[in-house]
Amino acid sequence: MARFEKLPYHDPANEALLAVVETPRGSRNKYDYDPELKLFRLAGVLPEGTVFPYDFGFFPSTKAADGGPLDVLILLDESVPPGMIVSVRLIGAIEAEQRKKGESWIRNDRLLAVATHAHTHGNIQSINDLNPKIVDEVEAFFEHYNRLHESEFKPIGRVGAKKAGKLLREASVSH
């Protein structure tokens, strides 16, 4: 049984970070890791024509303001299945706020990372190396995704790898 909540977010073998994929790129299914069951569960199905733009997951041993682990989108040549651990490097983050209908805004940032095994995106070192339209589309995806779930997602800024690293360190939990 997987115990992702005990996995460090730094790869002990090198300088890379470790991310856990919950939902693969191109999937209409949304998966969530359930720490009590130590399994992935189907959290929902997106409408026809709506898919995750990149592998979506989390950094283990972190806790974001929304109570879950810190979210990450992983740029990789091919999608990987839920539960895969991927070595990544941060390139930036979409700082954002989110709220459920009738509730207060909370931070729910989306860190952006490139898999260390990536070929297509292997040369990307910073969010500024991405075509800005890609980040616009990712933000639009999360705005739409949240509307489908009677929530709001509001991007408030885009930051580079250094600030994304700070967000990751601030979300770190000690074990």
Describe the strand arrangement of the main beta sheet, using strand numbers.
Answer: 1-4-5-8-6
How many domain units? Answer: 1
Percent helix range: 10-25%
| Largest β sheet strand count, sense and barrel closure | 5 strands, mixed, barrel
CATH topology: Inorganic Pyrophosphatase
Shape: globular
Tell me the structural class.
alpha+beta
The CATH H-level superfamily is Inorganic pyrophosphatase
Mean pLDDT figure: 94
- Low-confidence stretches are none
Secondary-structure element string? EEEEEEEEHEH
* CATH hierarchy: architecture: Alpha-Beta Complex
Protein described:
- With 175 residues, the protein is of the alpha+beta class.
- It has a single domain (4-165), classed as Inorganic Pyrophosphatase (Alpha-Beta Complex), CATH 3.90.80.
- 16% of the residues lie in helices and 37% in strands.
- The protein contains 2 helices and 9 strands.
- Strands 1-4-5-8-6 form a 5-stranded mixed barrel. The protein has a two-stranded antiparallel sheet with strand order 2-3.
- Strand 2 and strand 3 (39-45) form a beta hairpin.
- It is globular and about 45 Å long.
- The mean pLDDT is 94.
List the helices and strands and how they pair.
Elements: E1 17-23, E2 29-34, E3 39-45, E4 55-59, E5 70-75, E6 85-100, E7 106-107, E8 110-115, H1 132-148, E9 151-160, H2 161-171
Parallel strand pairs: 5-8
Antiparallel strand pairs: 1-4, 1-6, 2-3, 4-5, 6-7, 6-8, 6-9
